[in-house]
Specification:
The protein is mostly helical and 305 residues long. The protein has one domain (17-302): Orthogonal Bundle (Farnesyl Diphosphate Synthase), CATH 1.10.600. It contains 16 helices and no strands. The longest helix has 29 residues, at 274-302.
Length: 305
């Protein structure tokens, strides 16, 4: 393992920033972007502001705890990759013991918060997402299988079920067709989203001996799978719209966003340009953000908001 770099004592602000960085706040933002619209669709309108805030707090803590454990486990390979060598456990801004203590503390807080303030089902879903991300993806698949992000992506799809269950408080309602399709949409969206990033950082993953698909497969095979998963995502967006009985706003958004997503995936398939791949990665975030925003807006518009 590469020893962390020595540096002067950190200020309070820098130390707080280092702990925040452990949670991967940009990933948390994306997860919450999917959670709140799921709540709106499940409610058929706007849930109470308190329930939204409570679910966001619990979801952010749960995701942050899982991400911090991921950084703790991956600190050796993070030190080998250009993209991650500035992370706090690599630089020494946070010690491994402190990082793990922090991670367990906020994950425990998330479970207790969701159980007592939202409902037990949401708490169990949050905990299951953490355990799956840590044990199945980080500890098992990431360093051993090119299917790592395919199977491991299930953890990132669970927040939509947390959002749905926070409103319905029922296993039967949570696992009806609409939320299951929404879960599937996020599950199949994750591989093309992440593989596009991995194409650009292929050498990084190779240096760390992490078998991301672009490292172990040809560019053609990787981009063929990106295109195939993208088509599945678009079809699932249509299936969800039908199951949730959404209106014209959502359908227009799903069609336009899906057409662009597919066209960009075709472009990546036809070229070997990392620049084109990173454009697809960036757009995939836009796609999911606007699509989920459209589903919430569609429901609220039809409810007269």
């Amino acid at each position: 393992m590469v020893a962390p770099a020595l540096h002067p004592p950190l200020s309070i602000g820098s130390r707080v920033g280092a702990y925040v960085a452990l949670t991967k706040p940009r990933i948390i933002e994306l997860l919450l972007v999917t959670t709140v619209p799921a709540m709106v669709v499940a409610e058929g309108g706007l849930p109470s502001l308190w329930l939204i805030v409570a679910t966001i707090i619990g979801g952010a803590l749960a995701a942050g705890g899982a991400n911090a454990v991921n950084m703790y486990v991956d600190r050796d390979i993070d030190a080998l990759m250009e993209r991650t060598k500035g992370r706090p456990l690599v630089t020494g801004a946070v010690t491994p013991r402190a990082a793990l203590t922090f991670a367990v503390a906020i994950e425990t807080a998330a479970f207790v918060w969701l159980w007592t303030v939202v409902n037990p089902l949401s708490a169990m879903l949050g905990l299951s997402a953490c355990l799956f991300y840590v044990f199945v993806y980080t500890l098992w698949l990431k360093r051993s299988s090119s299917q790592n992000i395919v199977i491991g992506g299930a953890a990132g799809a669970i927040p939509v079920l947390i959002g749905w269950s926070s409103v319905t408080d029922s296993v039967g309602a949570t696992f009806s067709a609409a939320p299951v399709l929404l879960f599937a949409l996020m599950f199949f969206w994750t591989p093309p989203h992440f593989w596009a990033l991995a194409i650009k950082y292929k050498d990084d993953y190779a240096a760390a001996d992490v078998p991301m698909l672009p490292v172990v497969a040809s560019h053609r095979e990787t981009t063929r799978k990106i295109l195939a998963y993208t088509v599945v995502v678009v079809l699932l967006s249509f299936a969800f719209g039908a199951a949730a009985e959404l209106g014209w706003l959502y359908w227009i958004a799903a069609a336009v966003l899906g057409a662009v997503f597919t066209a960009m995936s075709v472009q990546v398939f036809r070229t070997e340009s990392p620049k084109t791949a990173i454009k697809l990665f960036t757009y995939s975030i836009t796609y999911i953000t606007v699509l989920f925003g459209a589903m919430a807006a569609d429901v609220l518009l039809r409810q007269g908001w």
